[in-house]
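Lab channel / #folding
Pinned by the channel admin:
"Please post every new chain as: sequence first, then the structure tokens as a reply. Keep commentary short and put observations after the output so the thread stays searchable."

First post following the new format, from NK:
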Amino acid sequence: MIEPWSCAWSRFIYKNLHHEPFVEDVKNWEFPSSGPLSGANGALPWIVFERDRKIFEDEFPNLKIEKIEPLMPFSYLLSGGISMKSLMFGFMYGICRSIEKIFERAGVCMFAMITIRKTTDNNENMYKKTLE
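Reply from TO:
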């Protein structure tokens, strides 16, 4: 998954320049819905997979978080995102990504790539063999 992520840079952008809420201090994983495509909390992926990671692991023991990789502190913004015109030419993308990798290693990001693997325990494997 590539999801919004929380760091000092992204919090500034999401809270000051983005139209959807980004609230990291909510107590649960729910948010009020006021209709289609509304009521979102952009911080929810960070809340579930980072802040509340232990709760996630306890609730979903067959889902293992393999890697969380911070991404794209600038290229998404410079590309115009989903609804704005791009602020950079296509040939600049490679240069921008090279610079971004330096910042990503320091944890500066707008998004994170989250890799999760479904695992099975012996009981599930035995159940599958019984059905076959």
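NK: The longest strand covers residues 63-71.
TO: also worth noting, The mean pLDDT is 86.
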